[in-house]
Specification:
Layout: E1 6-8, E2 36-39, H1 42-45, E3 76-82, H2 95-109, E4 117-120, H3 133-144, E5 152-158, E6 161-165, E7 175-179, H4 184-187, E8 190-191, H5 192-199, E9 208-214, E10 226-230, E11 236-240, E12 255-260, H6 274-284, E13 289-292, H7 293-303, H8 310-325, H9 334-337, H10 344-355, E14 369-372
Parallel strand pairs: 3-4, 3-5, 5-9, 9-12
Antiparallel strand pairs: 1-11, 2-13, 6-7, 7-8, 10-11, 10-14, 12-14
């Protein structure tokens, strides 16, 4: 029997937490539609996000240090990946919009230079920008290559996530979390161990990396050693997820913090009627732009000024998803952002159905997670990119 999770730094005691909770018969591979939210022109919801398309810099995705790479002015670099799996049975609707919104947010809110952001989507014309397994691997290598103290790096992924059985004993729940590149059915998935080795362990002192992962089973997809377990009242403890084998999953002195769309044993949609709901949604709201629910809530927290600390942004994201899932709307979210008229109520109720599995009794519990290389006080540490 696996040893119980060890907890460290109980900064705020969390009653009723069950560290030994295990999923019931989790599938080896589970690709369900992510919960997504639709909004009438995104510029009405987020005034600063007035552009949904722009060029991505050209760069050679090759793992040789001697090759040139984009000029990361101001020591800021980002890799943004949005995969729609178009024309496949796994197709998603909002992932490329997620990528475009995130790119615009980084440029206009956090002053990332345009030529230091690499976009990987099916809409890109350059072969090296298609989000297949090889290109994602090379982009992650480029992201951390040559980083120096003072650098700020970001990896955003919007697409399918899954999990597979772990056999080396370094996972608390017995499963490796994975990301699904465009060609995952032929080339395989990208496992959390590989992601950790690629963009976590190389981070040196003075460098900060943020990851924003909008996918199923994504709670610990970077394999970071500590997970912030937070209750509905905002009280939290840090769970110790370091492997019992002693394998190092931390950095080389730098800082890595990840926001993810849900816990390892959660999916962003879980209902057999989801395809019918999505069909109705498309027919009824054909002129509405779709984005992932987690990405929407992350951007909303920043736009509303609720991202002063890591704790405040996590609480804001969870509160938005929770209030929607309970049928109470977005708490002044989508409906009010749309001006309260026309299809706003329909959008809110549809998002609520998606988040509860299409019923009033619930089904899906999507709870954004925060993981890090080291524990910290989430209510005093300022959030910055």
């Amino acid at each position: 029997m696996a040893a119980p999770r060890r907890r460290v730094h109980p900064l705020r005691p969390l009653p009723g937490c069950h560290p030994n909770r295990r999923p019931t018969h989790p599938p080896t591979t589970c690709l369900l539609p992510r919960a997504s939210t639709s909004i009438f022109i995104l510029t009405r919801a987020f005034p600063s996000l007035s552009i949904l398309s722009s060029a991505s810099p050209s760069f050679p995705l090759l793992p040789r240090a001697a090759r040139s790479s984009p000029n990361a002015h101001g020591r800021k670099k980002a890799v943004i990946c949005g995969i729609s799996y178009k024309y496949s049975r796994h197709e998603l609707k909002g992932c490329i919009n997620d990528a475009k919104c995130m790119r615009f947010l980084l440029i206009n809110k956090f002053h990332f230079p345009e030529d230091s952001i690499v976009m990987l989507t099916e809409e890109e014309t350059h072969p090296s920008k298609i989000p297949n397994k090889y290109n994602i691997r090379m982009a992650l290598h480029w992201l951390v290559q040559g980083c120096q103290p003072g650098d700020s790096l970001l990896f955003h992924y919007s697409g399918h996530g899954s999990r597979q059985r772990n056999y080396n004993g370094d996972e608390v729940d017995g499963y490796d979390e994975t990301l699904c590149p465009l060609d995952f059915e032929t080339q395989g998935m990208i496992v959390d161990d590989e992601i950790n080795a690629a963009i976590v362990r190389p981070i040196p002192h003075g460098v900060k990396l943020h990851a924003i992962i909008d996918a199923c089973h994504s709670g610990t997809v970077l394999d970071l050693p500590f997970l912030c377990r937070m209750d509905r009242n905002g009280r939290y403890v840090w769970e110790d997820h370091r492997p019992r084998s002693g394998v190092w999953k931390g950095t080389s002195g730098g800082e890595v913090i990840s926001f993810s769309g849900c816990d390892d044993d959660q999916t962003s949609a879980d209902t057999s009627s989801m395809s019918d709901l999505m069909l109705y949604w498309e027919q009824a709201l054909s002129k509405i732009t779709s984005t992932g629910a987690m990405t929407f809530c992350f951007i909303q927290a920043i736009e509303r000024g609720q991202a002063g600390t890591y704790g405040s942004i996590l609480n804001s994201m969870r509160s938005t998803l929770r209030s929607t899932g309970s049928g109470s709307g977005l708490g002044g979210g989508v409906t009010s952002l749309l001006g309260g008229g026309g299809g706003g109520g329909g959008v809110t109720s549809l998002l609520g159905m998606l988040l509860t599995g299409g019923s009033d009794t619930g089904g899906l519990r999507q709870e954004p997670q925060l993981t890090a290389c080291e524990p910290f006080d989430v209510y005093t540490k300022p959030f910055s990119l």
